[in-house]
Fold this protein.
Amino acid sequence: MVKSFKTFLKHTAKDFHNQSVNPPVVRASTIIFKSMKHIRKTQKKAQKNPVGGHYDYGRQGTSTTYILQKILTKLEDSYHVFTTPTGFGSVFLAIFSVVRPGDEIIAADPVYSPTRVLTQDFLKEFNIKTIFYNPHDLKTLERSITKKTKLIFVENPGSNTFDFQDLGKIVSIAKKYKILTAIDNTWGTPYYLKPIKLGFDMSIVSATKYYSGHSDVMGGSLAVNKKVFQKVKAAEKITGLRLGPDDAYLITRGLRTLDVRLDRHRENAKKIAAFLSKNKKITLLYPFKKNSMNFRMWKKYYSGASGLMGLKIKSNNINSVRKFVNSLKLFGYGYSWGGFESLVLHQEFRETGNRKFMNLAKDEHLVRFHIGLEDPNDLIADIKQALRHLK
Ligand SMILES: Cc1ncc(COP(=O)(O)O)c(C=O)c1O
């Protein structure tokens, strides 16, 4: 019987041994064996089948982390998925696995700001140069390729400005020049976009966000194809960047309802977007307006949209923008999105960083909404009362 992924998420990872519908949390630093002979047997199995869940030491994982990796590998349609203690750990692992001193990276200008600091500043100290491309002009990407280019790092959509890029074109440029590719797919998750199927070598998701869904756990996942698997495995081993079993359990629990929550985030976000689109001071940074470039690029690759959106607000009165944000009652002020609750942020320089291709006029201000799972009518009523302050 062919099961849809929605059904798979509900029925997977049962524990028939203990007769429980959820898997146990196996915590172990020491894995014990009957004898030295049995240790060697396990090590041989691990060598023969490196994705098979054969461990001889707690840092390699336990059955709890292995179950999560197996679920995510299916969701990603990938060769394997590595799990890390944070989403940013997966960003680091992807880059560290394939880039060496003397190499160059080409990264999307609107990457998540810690990713920018890592590539632009930190890696520079290791003689690794990063060039940033304009997400709306891929000629700036192709022009930046040199013999030293090792990796193209994409984030889609771009952080804060929500730029949707031509992902297929990026993959074909990378293949033409034999360059590896990585994408941060936290916004869409593989529920809406499967980057490995599209041809990316590595795909990152911050599991802290929609996977866990309840704002109480941190984690990251890095899906890979066969080509880069050994490189990432070696880097994972040497850095010890592995997720613990308690966090793996919570993320597995969150995944049970990933589809239900994301569908609801999408429906709520659509209603809020429809309401906001009537306001002349606001330009929506969300795939909503049918004839926009962002909409076309989103539609081309995604099967749905999540709950994170940007608002570009035109106003000569920054205090009124602040007042609008501060008057919201149902939207908390906070960074880590993807949970059940709605959030708001006024995106100032600290959030957007020193981008090269962001043209924001003096009277334009960025506000980010994460649309949660509340009743959308309540959210609209809240936004309506706060909008009275916008001048
Ligand atoms: C797009 C994106 N990638 C990666 C991360 C990092 O994830 P984590 O907070 O789990 O380290 C974030 C966090 O906000 C993010 O927004």
